[in-house]
Specification:
- The structure holds two protein chains of two kinds.
- Chain A is α+β, with helices and mostly antiparallel strands.
- In chain A, a hairpin with a 2-residue loop joins strand 4 and strand 5.
- In chain B, strand 1 and strand 2 form a beta hairpin.
- In chain B, helix 1 packs antiparallel against helix 2.
Amino acid sequence: MSAIQPPQQRIWWKTPIDRVEGIWIILAFIWCLVMFFMMPYWHVFGKQNLSNEAYRSTPEMFMKKAEDGIAKYKVREETEQKIPVIHPPAGADVYLVARLWSWYPILELEAGKSYRLHLMSMDWLHGFSLQPENINIQVHPGYEHVLTITPTAAGTYGIVCNEYCGINHHTMSSKLYVVK
Amino acid sequence: MAVNRNFRTCPSTGLLYHEPAEKLMRWNAVAAVVSLLVGGLLALLVTLTRWPTVHLLPADAFYMTLTGHGLNMLVFWIIFFEIAILYFVSTVLLRCRLATPGWAWAGFWLMVAGALVNNYSVFIRGDSSVMFTSYAPMGAHPTFYLGLILFAVGALIGCFVFFGTLVVAKAEKTYNGSVPLVTFGGITAAIIAVFTIATGAIILIPTMLWSMGLVDHIDSLMYRTVWWGFGHSSQQINVSAHVSVWYAIAAIVFGAKPMNEKVSRTAFLLYIFFLQLASAHHLLADPGLTSNWKIFNTSYAMYLAVLASLVHGLTVPGAIEVAQREKGFNKGLFEWLRKAPWGNPAFSAMFISLVGFGFLGGISGVVLGTEQLNLIMHNTFYVPGHFHATVVVGTTLAFMGLTYFLIPTLFRRQLAFPKLAQWQPYLFGLGMSAFSLFMMGAGTLGVPRRHWDMTMAGNLMPWEWPGTAYLMVGLFAISGLVAIIGGGAYLLIVVWSVFLGKKIETPGFAHMTAKQGRAAIPVPVAASLQGQGGGHGHANIGAWGMVAPGTFVLAMVLLVSFILYYFVNWKYLSTVWPLS
């Protein structure tokens, strides 16, 4: 009779489907397939895909690589905490450390050049959120994530932590410079 | 042990209530509403803190409040209510006794204990501000996990009591043929619940042992992968439950019958097969998992579960349209909708829930869960914007609608403040819809979720958000306050009706035995006396050879909005920095 009573017909599975439902199911299914194929399509033809390259690592190993990069590419220090700013050459491996509650070091990249950006956390989960591009990537401890990024326009960008990481989570923000 | 076989018949609806089941439903519903009250007060504090103009709480209190808000709403309010729904769709709709009421009480008290222990950990100990997700290696006090585990065990017992009741109904032949569609939806929810709770145990038990120092290390990616098998799947219980509630309210208010049993049941079956895969869409921005794995899983296996929701989105209003047209509201495309009982809060809540869930929650969820599009939304305010549209506008509002039906029939009380009740779904539903929309707007501009201070005052290197982001957050807060007033109205109406409302006296009230309850042919409920057309005997209604052309037009509006919004996001993605 109604949806809160057993079906009136004992053999309900042989009731033909009404035209409204039939057409809708076909349209909806086609749309589902389009959405499915958009993802592989973008891997082939799109330019924004998250890298599948990641390695197991330890905080000590990752920090050492970050310090090596700072030793090689440091151009200046900023803020009263003297945070190093590095300006690596195009194509270089760039290490960005996420830790409670800072990003280290500050990066200065060139527009139109590509870099291999390595992201890892030293402690808890963090979120790499690049503003105003709004590119957001999860940062894990123990997993070194390697992405190829290509800044498009010069300017001062912000890096905000967008994964809750404890009491001072909101203080975890940094800068990223892109120069011509 | 003697089995209690006492039943009562509700005089206004003709529904049959088993005495112990009735008491359990009431207690579960009351525990749910108490959790909603706690969660609602916390919602007010969270909203007023995220609003930069007010910025009420200090940081530590804010993170604690947000943790408690998530748990009391997403877990305690919803699952207590769902247990009541499971007992309703089994005992009442199958006109049968509840299997093992003793176990059901044990489950209930475990759930109560779990909720108390968890809240103790968050608020009284104050050392467990780890959010609903409690991502390791950030650790909470062991009682945090213990509370959740106790609650989950209680809920699992409730699910098995429900399954047992189905067996009893079958064995005692209390219904003919197949179970009603709404019960079928309840079974879907319970099956997903068992999967969900098992997954929760797999991750929360080791994490509790880790927090006690007995396990050495919890891998952060393993935690997130398994935890979401619990965290997201629990939202799939909600979807199955509230879709059943939509069907139930359509049946109660309009006497609507499913347009096609096969279509609706197959759609529920697709939920069981594919919905859990969606848990993977929380991991789209994580390292260490391949794109192939992400694409297959997050598409719910080629979006077959999305297809199921699109089907329900058509068949629920379609069933209403058919019932209305058969009653004579057959003019044009939308007479059936114009002449719907918009002043009946059960209907208006259900309809706003349906539209809000589809247009706001559904579309945003699929966009958010697309592998590459996730990059420009992950962990921003867009995420809570999306899930407030699904879990609050969708699930909570549907449950509120059902409450208006349950107060007279289950609690036998007259609804208090009927005028306020008429307005309540609009205040809450529209407030919450605007709240979700502005949250998504702020997320599109990058504003992070779970963040105490968007002004970043005092940060060494603050990021300055554009003025539009502040505007979005301001509007979000104001809409949130409207929704909270709507939620407060619901609590006032429900608590007043249940505890102080006028009792509905039943003339000639007497308990009856199960034998009498074992009607061979179920007595139709009063409201469903209309619309008695046969399985497909409604050739003389509708237009274009369709029985529900108005619903078809609405569905096409949804599809076109969906397609446009989906491709707008791809367009936007193509403008951000190339990544590979």
